[in-house]
Amino acid sequence: MTYDILIAGGGPAGMTAALYAARAGKTVAMIEQIAPGGQMMNTPDIDNYPGFEKIAGYELSMKMQAHAESAGAVTIYDQILSLDKKDDLFHLTGNGGVYTAKSVIVCAGAKRRKLGVPGEEEFAGRGVSYCAVCDGNFFRGRVTAVNGGGNTALEDALYLSAICEKVYLIHRRDSFRGSPFLAEKVKNQKNIELILSSVVQSINGDAAVTSLTLQTPSGERIIDTSALFVAVGSIPDTAILPENVARDGNGYILTDEQMRTNIKGLYAAGDLRSSPLKQIVTACSDGAIAATAAANDLA
Which sign does the torsion angle of CA 115, 121, 126, 129 carry? Predict the structure, then answer.
């Protein structure tokens, strides 16, 4: 079967794209490797998605999938290995076969860079987070830490400083890679303590994070904290895409306002797209725009 629209990836962008494409009367399938939801599946509590004061990531994922399928979208469980275009049709090769479509929306997301230190995996979702905007509110009034030196780390530290008692900002270099303006704001914020030229050696705790062990210029140091927000960058999951798909300097996919890439019929939505904010709500927006554009372009 040749679909009107195939969606590679089943996170919030992919599920929203599937919903909108199906509602537009197109034959659509969403291909997901394991389970719909993407990174959202691993988030214990979500409290910044409109309409839900608090909802488990798993629950929101299941609701989104059910909504898309109720509109007529099909979910296919497979791992896509490659994507190419021949004779005006896209061919997605997976472990289970080859899928063809007139248009493709890639929603494969991005992977957060990890520190790779003891305790990081153990305390994921229990004090270790990769998104201050998503999870910072759970640590309101407490002591937190941020690891990183780019704009994201600086912005996370400033965001947390407004709701937390104290914020440690840990960076392996003696100066920040982020903008001088943000760096100056961080330095002037009284409840942010800078720990420079230092690295996290381990994340410690019992049921949740309680402290960090650092290697500093003066030796080992242990700081008490309820959370560590890791902000050392992310890696867009673009392995299946042809090399001629336009990307920015960090490897994220470039699109126009309608989520079109430089390849006719190929769209990108969600965290793998070059954009200033990566949240569930913005991924959903991307997916809706991409599906609407794809449906209109096929008309």
Answer: positive
The string of DSSP codes covering the chain is -EEEEEEE--SHHHHHHHHHHHHTT--EEEEESS-TTGGGGG-S-B--BTTBSSB-HHHHHHHHHHHHHHTT-EEEE--EEEEEEETTEEEEEETTEEEEEEEEEE---EEE-----TTTTTTBTTTEES-HHHHGGGGTTSEEEEE--SHHHHHHHHHHHTTSSEEEEE-SSSS-SS-HHHHHHHHH-TTEEEE-S-EEEEEEESSSEEEEEEEETTEEEEEE-SEEEE-S-EEE--TTS-TTS-B-TTSPBP--TT-B-SSTTEEE-STTB--S---HHHHHHHHHHHHHHHHHHH-
b/e map of 9-42 (b: 16 or more CB within 10 Å)?
A: bbbbbbbbbbbbbbbbebbbbbbbeeebbbbbbe
Say if residues 28 and 15 touch (Cβ distance below 8 Å): no
Q: What is the mean pLDDT of residues 125-142?
A: 93
Which active-site residues does the annotation give?
Answer: 131, 134-135
Single pTM value for the model: 0.76
Neighbours of 88 (CB within 10 A): 8
Q: What's the mean pLDDT when you consider all of the chain?
A: 95
Q: What is the pLDDT of residue 196?
A: 97
| Dist CA 130 CA 113 (whole Å) | 9
